[in-house]
Amino acid sequence: MTFGVFFTLNAFTQANIPINTVTTAVPFLRVNADARVGGMGDVGIATTPDVNGAYLNASNMAFNEKDFGVGLCFTPWLRSLVNDIYLTTLTGFGKIRDKGGKGEQAIGGSIRYFSLGNIQFTNDQGQETSQFRPNEFALDAWYARKLAKNFSLGVGLRFIYSNLAGGQSDGFGNVIAPAIAGAGDINWTWRQNFKKDGQKMSHDVAVGMNISNIGNKVSYTNSQVRDFLPTNLGIGFNYGLNIDAKNTWSFAFDVNKLMVPTPSTKDENGNGVYDFREKSVVAGMFTSFGDAPGGAAEEFREFTIGVGTEYMYNKQFGARFGYFYEPNSKGGRQYATAGLTVKYSIVGLNFSYLIPTSINRSPLDNTLRFSLIFEFNKGALKGQPSGVSLIDDEPKKEKKKKNTDAVPLPNENQ
Predict the structure, then answer these.
(1) How is 163-212 classified by DSSP, letter by letter?
(2) Beta carbons within 8 Å of 210's beta carbon, 6+ residues apart
(3) According to the 3-state scheme, what is the secondary structure of 327-343?
(4) Which member of 3, 20, 67, 410 has the lowest number of beta carbons within 10 Å of its beta carbon?
(5) Element (H, E) at 304
(6) What is residue 94's three-state secondary structure?
(7) How many whole angstroms from its chain centre is CA 120?
(8) Which residue, 250, 223, 190, is CA-closest to 43?
């Protein structure tokens, strides 16, 4: 567990590249809890929208075909070591429709809760003093709107609370208090369907971008030196091939980079605080693309890449695979993922599994994640069905009875 402290390790990777991991406070904000995203290599910025995908790109929700939705995710953490650490999320959204598509809007909110299990505090003599359950949570509210038929813009606000030590002292007389922050997101999505006249096959192309967690620096003590939130730039691409009415295949990839300063040992004013820690939030964001001590080569290593593919049959069952890559000198998270999905009527269930592929262990190694989705339309499920469904959501149309008495009856008065 860290309290936002940055460390530069004097170690080298197998390629003789120095390890210089970029770390931040409240890193749980960068954990994807959704099992659908988890099954595709943590890719989801531009994929087909569902309610749980609002974490990665809220603007994408303006393209959601449903009117309302609720999503629940559960992600065990370090399950191979402990059984009481987990991340859970609850999300909801609603659509505000218009007749033409342009100006269509979506609003939503969520809560993200990270429980770090139970810890035992001891004194200097090793005697047990008290127990505490550290926890962190974030409350989100967001709004998305179509500015054109194929383009949407989204904004979000976030309240962040992190309580890691419950009022304990750090040994220097400083009480460790909860960290509180406010942050915001800004994102956009472009989505287009291409189909030639007379052909069953069509193509979906989407591109999205999200700058998330733009907010104040935080500290767990009364120190004037504060730590950055995990401000992140994410860009995603998705290509979907609708082979026919029953078979759909898609390919997606995301690229992410933390927009916070790279750790370095420079201290030009000699005050004992590294210069990168004294930067403002805005300065840290704009200089994060050119401040790595190793130059452009190290800067490129701060990008992470996720690729994923998804196959759906008859909008009923789906399978997913993906891979996530982070260079060894910047954390070394490298793993493959697999996932399944099924939906009955308005209820969808997703599963994902993480398969480690490097010597650097992930907290989610060999962990099965779950997410649940309820998405429906106004007026007892009216509207076109979307997502995966074992039955047709669209209400049955009343059949008009044919009038078999086509010949009029003779008039008795004639």
Answers:
(1) ESSTT-B-SSS-B-PPEEEEEEEEEEEEEEEEE-TT-S-EEEEEEEEEEE
(2) 45, 56, 57, 58, 59, 185, 186, 187, 232, 233, 234
(3) CHHHCCCEEEEEEEEEE
(4) 410
(5) strand 303-313
(6) strand
(7) 32
(8) 250
Q: 43 and 319 in contact (C-beta within 8 Å)?
A: no
- Rounded to whole angstroms, how far apart are CA atoms 272 and 265? 10
Residues in the chain: 414
Burial code of 130-141, b = ≥16 C-beta within 10 A, e = fewer?
A: eebebbbbbebe
Residue of 50 and 80 predicted with greater confidence: 50
Cα–Cα nearest to 185, from 114, 254, 110, 288 = 110
Three-state SS for 137? strand
The pLDDT assigned to 12 comes to 42
d(C-alpha 212, C-alpha 233), whole Å: 7
C-alpha distances in angstroms, 65 versus 5, 243, 303, 350?
A: 44, 20, 32, 19
Which class for 26: exposed (0-12), middle (13-18), buried (19 or more C-beta within 10 A)?
A: buried
The single-letter code of the amino acid at 174 is N
| Residue pair 310/41 in contact by the 8 Å Cβ criterion | no
At 377 the pLDDT is: 87
CA distance 133 to 136: 10
DSSP code, position 32: -
Model confidence over 284-334: pLDDT tens digits?
Answer: 999 999 999 999 999 999 999 999 999 999 878 999 999 999 999 999 999
Structure tokens given for 210:
């999200």
pTM attached to this predicted model: 0.84
Sorted by where each starts, the structural domains of the chain and their CATH numbers stand as 27-381 (2.40.160.40)
Phi/psi at 333 (5° precision): -75, 115
Instruction: Check whether 220 has a pLDDT greater than 50.
Output: yes
Stretch among 192-206, 243-257, 282-296 having the lowest mean pLDDT: 192-206
209-246 per-residue burial string, b: 16 or more CB within 10 A, e: under 16: bbbbbbbebbbbbeeeebbbbbbbbbbbbbebebeeee
